[in-house]
Specification:
This protein is of the alpha+beta class. It has helices at 3-6, 14-17, 42-53, 86-93, 95-118, 140-152, 183-196, 307-322, 365-381, 388-391, 398-421; strands at residues 31-38, 58-61, 77-78, 126-134, 157-160, 171-180, 200-202, 207-211, 216-220, 225-233, 249-261, 270-273, 279-285, 291-300, 329-338, 344-347, 355-359, 436-441, 444-450, 456-460, 471-473, 478-480, 487-488, 494-496, 505-506. The structure holds FE2/S2 (inorganic) cluster.
Length: 508
């Protein structure tokens, strides 16, 4: 069955489809700068912009195209209301930690508005409230606790029972002064400002090695050297992982469907609930005066399979709850959660002096990406950074983190061992057109995809990051690694790290 073909909507992010592709040059010579930023998503471009503004010479080195990886496939909520985070942080780390988290996130949101204004970037920024809601009366106490914790952390939060949603809720946290925007319009404007300010952006420039000397030295896949006093790694899942953060990061993937709705049916806010395996709602300006309803949900581990069915459930929910008729777009977002729910932003490892990282945004990459830019620029320039300790990747809270770390690692170990013991199809002949499966061929696990013309394409099924076995995503037609979330095209090329090298071709 052609599963991808059965899922309605253009298989592309609206943010990507509604903006022009970029064409920054590929690095052609060795380079020397004050700061090299590896990764051109929202965290990397935000960091680069702050440093250019501070007078540093900066180069952004992006393996693909800027704002086109994880950042191009977000839901783009600029919210400090991260589902139910404040009660948890306060109980685990205290009231001051919750206050620092709230202040840093809210400051990031306001910083986007100021920057867009200052640079005259038309990024469709709209200020509106954010809500975390429940429909079941049994869950209301959690919502009341979160509203109280968020307010105590200094945010304009309250408990409400009325929202703009077209269905009743049992209760919701409502947070004022939040925002939604078009992330690529914002970041493409920021990229232009970086270059106009004297910074450089290089695309199709994959960095393979980091030597943390003085200065630091980066080596690209084409053997070129970039020397820099400071290096920032903002590649989503860090490609240089000297603190072994992979043991403390859990990847998850979510699906998105987008459908036009009449403007007078706009729910007037950004919404999220943990029910039904997460449902998140926002809108964006769309054609003919309509709004584009963007619904996200169906959280799953990369490689878990059944993606076509997950799209079906999400589409059915959008139709049932909002009466949408035509699904215009569908795409998927991916992020990593940390073991204590707070991102890792700061020095790369305990001995690092000039290498920095930002990762583990937990699905809240917009505010966390901008916050990371402000924080990393402050660390590099020596400005005060009041929340540096909260986000420091070198923190480890053994008592609090032991259980989630062990759980994450047990899951990885299960995939590492268990996935080696089973094939997903007995033979290549069992794989239908448009489908893929892991098959043992001459004793080796091969990832085999059969194209629509019936021709099978085989690559090694062993992930080039740390050796787990990949699995097929039936809706996106990609190979995904369940251990740390690397993604590969059916020809084996890397779509998303931490893997840096492709899956090698195999003959059948
Ligand atoms: Fe780490 Fe595949 S992403 S082993």
């Amino acid at each position: 069955m052609d599963i991808a073909g059965d899922t309605p909507g253009l298989a592309e992010s609206y943010w990507m489809d509604s903006t022009e592709p970029t064409s920054y040059p590929t690095l052609a010579d060795d380079l020397q700068v004050d700061v090299a930023v590896v990764g051109g998503g929202i965290a990397g471009l935000s960091t680069a912009w702050e440093l250019v503004r501070a007078g540093r010479s900066v180069a952004v080195l992006e393996a693909g195209r800027i704002a086109a990886g994880v950042t191009g496939y977000t839901t783009a909520k600029l919210s400090a209301l991260h589902t139910l985070v404040y009660a948890g942080i306060r109980s685990a780390q205290g009231a001051e930690a919750a206050r620092l988290y709230a202040t840093s996130q809210q400051q990031a949101i306001e910083h986007v508005a100021r920057t867009a204004d200052e640079l005259a970037i038309d990024c469709e920024l709209e200020q509106l409230p954010a809500y975390t809601y429940v429909e079941s009366a049994e869950q209301v106490q959690r919502i009341q606790d979160e509203a109280e914790a968020a307010a105590a952390a200094g945010l304009p939060a309250s408990f409400v029972t009325g929202t703009g949603l077209p269905f009743p809720v049992a209760g919701a946290v409502r947070l004022e002064r939040q925002a939604q925007f078009h992330p690529r319009r914002y970041l493409l404007g920021l990229a232009e400002a970086i270059v106009e300010g004297g910074g450089a952006i290089y695309e199709r420039t994959r960095v393979l090695d980091l030597d943390e000397g003085r200065p630091c030295r980066l080596t690209t896949e084409h053997g070129l050297a970039v020397t820099a006093a400071d290096v920032v790694v903002t590649t989503h899942f860090p490609v240089f992982d000297r603190a072994l953060l992979f043991a403390r990061l859990v990847p998850h993937r979510e699906l998105v469907v987008a459908a036009p709705i009449p403007a007078d049916q706009d729910p007037g806010g950004m919404y999220i609930t943990q029910a039904d395996n997460t449902r998140s709602v926002r809108t964006a300006p769309y054609t003919d005066g309509r709004r584009l309803l963007i619904v996200t949900g169906e959280s799953f581990t990369p490689g878990a399979g059944g993606v076509g069915d997950r799209y079906g459930r999400l589409t059915a929910w959008a139709r049932e709850r909002f009466g949408v008729k035509e699904i215009a777009y569908r795409w998927a977002a991916q992020d990593n959660r940390t073991t204590d729910q707070i991102p890792y932003v700061g020095r790369l490892h305990s001995a690092a002096e000039h290498a920095y990282v930002a990762t583990g945004f937990g699905g809240w990459g917009m505010s966390n990406g901008v916050m990371s830019g402000l924080l990393l620029a402050a660390l590099i320039t020596g400005e005060p950074a009041p929340w540096a300790g909260l986000y420091d990747p070198r923190r480890l809270h053994p008592l609090r983190e032991a259980a989630p770390m062990l759980k994450a690692q047990a899951k990885v170990a299960g995939h590492f061992v268990g996935d080696r013991l089973r094939s997903h199809a007995d033979s290549v002949d069992d794989i239908a057109a448009g489908a893929g499966a892991v098959v043992r061929v001459r004793g080796e696990r091969c990832a085999v995809y059969r194209d629509q013309a019936g021709t099978p394409h085989a690559v090694s099924a062993t992930c080039t990051h740390l050796g787990c076995i990949v699995a097929f995503n039936d809706a996106e037609r990609t190979w995904e690694c369940p251990c740390h979330g690397s993604r590969f095209a059916v020809d084996g090329s890397v779509i998303q790290g931490p893997a840096q090298r492709p899956l090698q071709p195999r003959s059948l």
